[in-house]
Amino acid sequence: MMWKTTVLLLFLPHLLSSTGTENIKQLNQSEINVEFSDAPVKSQKPTGAVKGWDSCSIPCDITVKLLRDEKHSICGQLQQSLLAFGRSTRKLMRDVMEEQQRALDILSSQVTELMTKVQTLSSEVQRSNTEMYSIKPVQSHGRDCSDIKDNLMSVVPKIPSGIYIVHPENMDSSFEVFCEMDYMGGGWTVIQRRTDGLTDFKRPWADYSDGFGNLAGEHWLGLKKVFHLVNQKETRFQLHIALVSSDDITSYASYDDFHVDSETQFFSIHLGRYAGSAGDAFRGYEQEQNQDTAPFSASDVDNDGCNPFCSIDNRTVESCSTIQNNTGWWFNQCGLANLNGSPEDAEQNLWQKMHILWDTWRQNGIPHTIKSVTMKIRRIATNN
Ligand SMILES: [Ca+2]
Q1: How far is the CA of 302 from the centre of ligand 1 (A)?
Q2: What is the mean pLDDT of residues 358-384?
Q3: From the CA of 295, how far away is ligand 1's center (Å)?
Q4: CA 304 to centroid of ligand 1, rounded, Å
Q5: Which domains are assigned to the chain?
Q6: Which Pfam families does the UniProt record give (predicted)?
Q7: Cβ-contact 231, 259 below 8 angstroms
Q8: What are the DSSP calls for 29-81, one per residue?
Q9: Does the global pTM surpass 0.70?
Q10: Ligand 1 midpoint to CA 240 (Å)
Q11: Ligand 1 mean position to 337 CA, how many Å?
Q12: pLDDT tier at 56 (50, 70, 90 boundaries)?
């Protein structure tokens, strides 16, 4: 089958510029009608009289050559264009990526800036919370918070809670304490507070003896100071333990007499009659759990009544402090109370007891998970 292709003189300028093709110049700018057979060009005989070739107005071999040249030229241009396109695409992608990286860097620095601001703000809030108490009138002196309350009652209509300076009798120095003046009649000297778990209670004997933490927040006042507070002449102190569970149930345990011995006797605890809603975990259910009269123990001073070992929950225990997060307490084999555990560690692990422990406060037989506790003491009116 024969077919006719109409070749427009689109590439006439190229033709004109070619050397050795003078005869082409004779062409006017009309259409060139070329007939091709179905067979490939290379199979055509370039010379000889083939039927149908008469219709070629220019020699076919020249046309073929021109077309081939044109093809090479177009291919070359196409390759150049493709190369240029590839280059520009790569550049574009590089630019886009660089742009995105710049945007990411800006975002990242903004996030860092915001985080810094948040941290600054939260430390500001924390500081102002602390200062709210710290700035209060620490200049008010007394032997303890009950004494301060009695002294101020006649001059101040409402005595604020906060940090006050106390100077117990028979002591050559004064120290700061947190006084709760608006709880159950006020006059309470806080000797321990556990609220957020941010203060480390894994401490050696010296720290439990001297005290640690932040008076406005979590702290242990220190056994030496407590000894001086509760051993003043003609005074008797009650101990009040206020507990809050993780589901915001409150409870308490109160002892109508509380004092500790001196450090030479390892600050042994002495408790009066119990009253309250949380149960008497200090004494427990059995005599061997009774912590009343027990000396204090810490991770490095062992008075825990397990000498050399105790058998608790069918396990052998050498140190109650060790199995209770290296905290200090008046352990006795090891007992049912340790308020120096961590509120953060709410898991009721029967073996490693890390949490705040007051085992007699239960619901449906299960101990409450305690999230905060305060131990405070107040004078009891004595007849003489
Ligand atoms: Ca021991």
Answers
A1: 5
A2: 91
A3: 12
A4: 5
A5: 145-380 (3.90.215.10)
A6: Fibrinogen_C
A7: yes
A8: SS-EEEEEESS-GGGS-SSS--TTGGG-SS-HHHHHHHHHHHHHHHHHHHHHH
A9: no
A10: 28
A11: 17
A12: low
